[in-house]
User: Which sequence fits this backbone?
């Protein structure tokens, strides 16, 4: 191993440790690539595999990007042992980050599960959930800001007032409060600068169960 590779591996460990300190769950592969100046996620995976062989990192068997620092890595980076997720994953679930959701006007739906995020078990006790990155500010009064991550439980029904992922057109989704009115559905923003949206009907894809915000 070259000195450059050794320094890059240490930067990855330090970044994972710093992210755990700041927000309590590990970074995505793409976040690591940006933080340590790697051009591709495949290069990150190469270094993660090396760290795993060195006994400094563990990755979940079900999803290879479920990152856990070992106690040896925690000591090396000065990370408190209580912030290292346990190997059995009892306190966290690793959920797919499948794309973006509009907190504004609807945007085109897509899925790209190449990223994952470890979230507290409290937000997804059964692990049956997924994560979306928020784009827009129409839900700021509900404490959901541009760039936040929302944890969504898949379901096809909702009560009035629930914050839901609503499919409003064939391939367009939005995040809003749901209200059923006579002959129509109202999707209500949580920002007085945005008007409500009305549709004859919408397809509920999931309900908001948690919000995760990165603090830089």
Assistant:
């Amino acid at each position: 191993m070259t000195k450059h590779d050794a320094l890059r591996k240490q930067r990855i460990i330090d970044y994972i440790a710093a992210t755990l300190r700041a927000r309590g769950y590990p970074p995505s592969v793409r976040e690591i690539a940006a933080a340590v100046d790697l051009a591709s996620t495949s290069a990150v995976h190469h270094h993660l595999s090396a760290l795993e062989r060195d006994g400094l990192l563990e990755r979940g068997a079900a999803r290879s990007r479920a990152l856990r620092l070992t106690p040896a890595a925690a000591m090396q980076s000065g990370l408190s042992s209580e912030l290292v997720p346990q190997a059995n994953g009892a306190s966290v679930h690793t959920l797919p980050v499948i794309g973006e959701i509009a907190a504004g006007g609807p945007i085109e739906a897509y899925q790209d599960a190449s990223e994952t995020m470890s979230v507290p078990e409290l937000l997804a006790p059964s692990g049956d959930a997924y994560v979306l990155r928020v784009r827009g500010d129409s839900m700021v009064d509900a404490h959901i800001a541009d760039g936040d991550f929302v944890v969504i439980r898949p379901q096809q029904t909702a009560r009035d007032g629930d914050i839901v992922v609503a499919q409003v057109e064939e391939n367009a989704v939005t995040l809003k409060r749901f209200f059923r009115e006579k002959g129509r559905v109202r999707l209500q923003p949580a920002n007085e600068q945005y008007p409500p949206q009305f549709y004859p009907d919408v397809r509920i894809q999931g309900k908001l169960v948690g919000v995760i915000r990165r603090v830089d």
Remarks:
- The first helix runs from residue 3 to 23.
